[in-house]
Batch of 2 targets.
Target 1
Amino acid sequence: MVDVELRAKRDALEYLWRQGLSGRPLLHRHSQLIDDYLAGLFNNCPEATEGMSLVALGGYGRRELFPYSDIDLLLLHAPGSEDRLGVVTEALFYPLWDAGLEVGHGVRTLDACLADARQDFFFQVALLDARHLAGSAPLFGAMHQAFHRELIAGHRGEFLQNMMQHRNNRHQRYGMHGYQLEPHIKESRGGFRDIQAMLWVSHALFNLQELQAIEEAGLISSQEKEAFGQAWDFLIKIRNRLHYLSGRKNDQMFFEYQEEMARAFKYSDTPGTLGVERFMQDIYRHLHTIATTTDLFFEHVDETLGAPRANPVEQTIEPGITVRQDRLHLTGQTLIEKRPHLLMRLFAQAGKTGLEIHHRSRKIVTANLHLVDDKLRHSKRMAKSFLDVLENARDAEGVLSVMLDTGLLTAYLPEFEQIRALAQHDVYHVFTVDRHLLQTVAELKKLSLHKTPFAGVESPHVLALAALLHDIGKGHHEDHAQRGSELVTGIGKRLGLTEAETACLSFLVEKHLFLSVTALRRDLEDDAFIRQCAEQIQTPERLAMLYLLSIADAKATGPTAWSEWKGALLLEISLKIAHLLERKDATLPDKSQGAGWMLAQVRALMGKAAPADYGILPEEYLLSFPPEEVAHHLKLRAGLKNEQQAIVEAGDHSLFWSVLIMTRDTTGLLAKICGTLALHGLNVVSAQIFTWEDGTAVDVLNVRPAAEQTYAEQDWRALGEDLNLALKNRLGLSHRLVEKFRTAFRAPGQKNVQAAPRVVIDNQASEQYTIIEVFANDRPGLLYDITRTLADFEINIHRARISSDGDQVVDVFYALDSFATKINSPSFQAEISQALLHIAEKETGTKPQW
Amino acid sequence: MKKIEAIIKPFKLDEVKDALNDMGIKGMTISEVKGYGRQKGHKEIYRGAEYIVDFIPKVKIEIIVEAAMVEAVVTKIRETANTGKIGDGKIFVLPVEEVVRVRTGETGKEAI
């Protein structure tokens, strides 16, 4: 039997492979073997004479036959030879089938070939690799010529668009990056299909058939060609072994094969990392090389050949950076050398505008990485732009991902290099460490869009940094959280964070698993244990950040790491700790003891010396502050004499500052406070607003400075004076705010797509209050305008939470109407919404004169 | 044969699992469940915002044993999962008609 001969030959090939024949030579040897065998069959078949031609297609056509690849064949025949076809196909294909080979076969005339190729893009591409095996050479030649003449020439643009379309669809189907736990080395991003896509396009469009030729034509650089070639060779060896190991046509790196493959490629374990992890890291890095090179290639070719894009006019958005055809461009090499932080500015602009960076500028970034030296890594400007991306970019993950691709991220944060494309050999972590970190940043962003408990932290940039860096210590044999916390201390200092911010960052990285682990493994009813947790976490702000980080981390890990069930446990432990932290002395019993108990504590602190009317303190107020603070407020109240005089007390809590304001409650008080704070360059992040029964307002606002400024530099005395003036209605806040921010507004004409403002009035979420949420594009004085508007409606605000998400701010107010009841009337709700939308939609609330 | 279903606090899972392994019980099915009994859901207020915790996360363990083993297993779970506080969980014992091992087709005691 003829198939026995073929089996023997293929067994011999496997034997040669075991002896060390690998890579490309194995593919060629395999192709040659099949070529010879098929030519033998064809030539021994008497019916297969003139008017017939046997053609290899696809990968076989390219002589890239992997051990279990399909063998794609075309039997081309001239019209009139139909009666002999049956015999010939039996003689050719049966032995292949009998030998267990996967055969893709077609029997067509020349016209049918062309017609099918017009209909089916896959067949069209397969024909591009057509190679004559046996039979009539003139017939093959005619087909080859007709194919190029009718389907390729004059259809170059169409071919490119089709190819890009298929490539995108494939990436969508197999994941946008090859960093999954079990990468598909043929179809996923950076796999063989991407290599071929580039070669097919070069062949069809420019008649370039080798990497060498593509480089010489200037479509890829010589460095790119070098890395690309290495990656390609590596992946060929991997795929050969994968086929033999699986005993079938399998192109996916299944988890169960990974260790055996790693051993075969001589990767051994070292302290801290497994051999298989470094092996997978190499695979990911090679897939990544191919993905980025082909991305740049396609963008380049598309630009050269594709339809012209909109907005051909060039617009400079800052010196050295322009927008042309909806892409960001770096201009001027000399400028970059003089001001290397432009490299980071480019990404800050990408984050802000949502525009992509032009492929040539991405290459410019890579070519200038030598400029990122120690000095630049300590540069304030650089840090500002970097943090801007993290905190404000609309698609932070996307921008960071390009930053990683260009090499800028690892040049700027060298600590990142260790975990780049680092795999973790377990079924729990679906992504490599670097991808997981970027994903965590994205998940954190998503959390800020939802009504999550603890949402809206005082220093979002520290939290975003923690998300990006929490696993930075992986890949060593020590505890990665501990090592990470040491590494980020250095990073925090370099980025110019304050000491408190750096300490907080280090804490978050060190403890990033704490809540998730303890929520599952410890008894949450154990008060002593909860107290220990509170002692470790120290402040409500840290707890809020840790809570958000834990969720984002779990969601970014993989489908098994997060569930609603775990979320409920995490919330439970966090709320328990939070209640303890809200009081300064964590050893006191918790506040479920009630207001009466709190009052007794306050009385004891006040002593007999300072009698006070305790009846004026509302229950909710008593439950919101530690007894010491209540006593302090009572003492301040005694000094509050003049009807309109306000007492202003500032406090430094390192991550934010607090301002305590005590005065007689009046309509519009909060608006006046917010306006005065804005006038003094302070952004409100949260507010607690209380009114005692005797009409004393006790407002505590947490603020952050708008400009880089220390607590000591802030002129608190002037703030107090201005607030008193404002309360006496002797300070025109509206016009002063316009004056102050005249220059701070956005430069005209700058492109900035903004989300539409929204107002949500919710009576369900809180039993006691109506919750008014305002989503608006941030601008100076916005909070002043909103609170003034609410004051006009005689709405009392009892709590406020102000957080920002990129350019949008989310202001949440817990409010009651003038009768101290919820705002139930639909028409009144609509009126309030309209008024607030009017404020939010104003480009600048206080119309500056340009 | 009986099926024992135990609903316990999540942090007790490892202890209970180890204790059962020590008694020679090697197979069990574990799932994350939510529910409430006498330990009702509750409302939490934090910084003015209210969070309703209506179902409480628990772990469910399912084990099939011969009738003779039931008492020992139930006692062991009870001892191990007990914290003495509300919400420690419940154990149910149900009759099982037949067990079949999918791979071999063995039935009854052999298939457990």
Target 2
Amino acid sequence: MTNFFKMHFFVPLAAVLGLVAIAYFGAEANLTWVFGVVIPYLAILIFFEGLIYRIIQWVRSPVPYRIPTTAGQHRALPWIETTAKDKLDNPQTFLQVVGRMGLEVLAFRTLFRNTRTELKKQDDYPEGARLVHWSYKWLWIGAIAFHYAFLVIILRHLRFFSEPTWGFVHGIETVDGALRFFVPAIYLTDIVLLAGLTYLLARRLTNPAMRYISLAADYFPLFLILGIGITGVILRYYVRTDITAVKQLAIGLVTFNPVVPAGISPLFFVHLFLVSVLFMYFPFSKLMHMPGVFLSPARNLANNNRVRLHVNPWNYPVKFHTYMDQENEYREAMYEAGIPLEIPPEAAEQAEQAEQKEQ
Amino acid sequence: MAKVPSPQELSKVNYRPPAKGWTETKPEFRPGTYCNAAAPKWLEMVSYPYPRRWSVPEADWHLPPDWKEIVLQQMEDRLSRFRSLKLFFDICVRCGACADKCHFYLGTGDPKNMPVLRAELLRSVYKRYFKPAGKILGELAGARDLTEDVLKEWFYYLHQCTICRRCSVFCPYGIDMAEMTILGRELLSSVGINIEWALASVASCYTRGSHIGAPPQAYVDMIDFLAEENERITGIATPVTYNRKGAEILFITPSGDYFADPGSFTMMGYLLLFKYLDLDYTMSTYAAEGGNFGWFISHEMGKRLNIKMYEEAKRLGVKWILGGECGHMWRVCNQYMNTYYGTPPDFLEVPKSPITGTVFEHAKMHKMVHISEFTADLIKNGKLKFDTSRNEHIKLTFHDSCNPARAMGIFEEPRYIINSVLPEGHFFEMPPNTIREKTFCCGASAALNADEYMETRMKGGFPRASAVRFVHEKYGVNHLGCICALDRATLPPLLQYWVPEVDVTGITEMVGNALIFPGELERTTDLRDRPLVGFEEAEEEEEAE
């Protein structure tokens, strides 16, 4: 194990375990008001302020050039067909950009097209080897499973913040809890989220190249969300806490009437604290890929430079070599080569003589 | 020049990362794996800062004393001017999807050639000086001090990126290493670190008109020579006019097309095609270069060279511009040219083919048409008569050049032309994951086609060559077609090394070769003086005589 790996893997792991301990012992020490009210409010404040601050930071820098990455046939000659795929991968209108971005954000289309390349022995080739490329969907599956499970779990949690619970939340719960062989019903998304996280973590650890590039900033959110997931699962399936009391706390928070009812297990405060940390961490981390993807100039622009001018706000005049610079330098030679000139050699000579006389 | 190891040796790529973490390893500047430092004269010609003599393998790069402040100040400046840079620094999640997409990673196995980590080389410095977390947590936040070693590392790896954008296609957020490479090279230039191949080309282009540094009269000579070659082989004179005011079309193509084989055969193809059409066109000794090495080193230098195109079109009073087969030229033309210029070039007219009457609406503001668009339109309208049997000796596969593929999207036009000028069943695609938007770079674009860089070039081009090998073995492919002059300069040595059975050809070369002219000589050879199918014996007899 390299020192690099040790630092980037174990420090975030220790940090998350430390956070768990802080919240657990804090709740045991009756600091429930801090962990149940103060920190969640602070977290929400930091989350939104941070999010807005970071987006403003990005937007303050202009997009000087229109540089979409094109991955399909452009529309040029009308008789060359462009398929739906071409329009999405090489958008030339605003609507097509919306389509491209929509599929990117909702379906992770780029990851879906991921490939894997491997060097294979090939004895009948003189060089003895060949690169083979194939479609590789695992990262897409892992990523989309994790993200959607997380989304559904967040939506399910709205049951704590709505009174009476909104109808669609019930709907989600019913579908998600379709596995009714157990009591309480096991939510599919709980399994999918933990499985997805495990996969995302495992690939960083088992693939040597992935392990080599991974930083603390990659492990920390994984551990943190794993911590949230595991505490959540324990709270639901094993150490059941007083749900009514939790709901009271949640409703109190959203109605700005905070109360901390008695009887909530310390483990719940661990769960809530980790969620709060996630919110606070979000704007200052790579998790900003969520709003960031919408701003990516390689994806959110139409490939229509030849039809519409893209203005660079800081475009400035540059020094360049003019045609007359060339002609002045090579006039004689150009004349002899029969290249048309702006000023024929005799005229240029006369002008030069006149200038010398003046001096 | 350092000897390049054999293909058998180079293809044994080791993808196992070193035991030490990436912040602890340093590049080794071994001959064959770095580009030479730029001579000071080139920098002086384009008023670039800190011209001096320095050498890459030497420990002391003679940096200006306040180099660190300069680089950081320049980085801050770029962050404030390019949202892309800020965003790409901030949102990468290191998912690794880009890792095995880079031809340099696949060819070298060096983990710092995974785009994610190459970007991290810059990002780590950004975190250290511009992000609170990096300032406080340092290494734990993936931040590191900007040292001379870090700068050297940038130099090493930013010149193992050909700005091909393959990583950007596969990145879920579109993070584009190309963008970071150009801006990173700008930072290097700010303290006088440039490579010879780039700066020599840029300065030559700036002062004389083309990368090869040919003065106007030599430019005319070279093209006239190719016109004479056309006449010798086909019996058809294809004279060219230069700097002719009032011509309808200004034709601009990269210098690679008139300077050296096999690009020159493509040039002959252009001239034949234009003659066939009796096109009212002219070429310019001033806008004599389609390619733009300036853009490989900075946006500003890109603009300083590119501006010649519109300026010359304006001076000559042409109606529109026709652009030759070139990769990065078309990235610049498609994505930067108008923005550089700042205003729509209203002194030009919406391009209209004088032969077919087709109005190129898709270029109505830009006023410039790609030769493949132009030719495909001609063929579609039945304006060209081909004898495809003249290309019967060619079994072709097509290499999508990175920039027209991933910064424009011109896939079908060249394929349509290919299918029209080749006999049926002579065109074979490489495996789907290696063409179109997933195409692999030639390995030496972005000013890396320097001879002293051969070993790394051969490694970087391995993924491309490997796909060519595949179709060569499977279908007997013997030609690799492309619409890029830089490819025509870089692919021949690449294939000579990996797949020597395959030659490189431009698409318009095959067009010119197949065009049937009234009153032409009976053709027994192609434009390269190679016997046509059915005339091999005649050729041998001639040789015997």
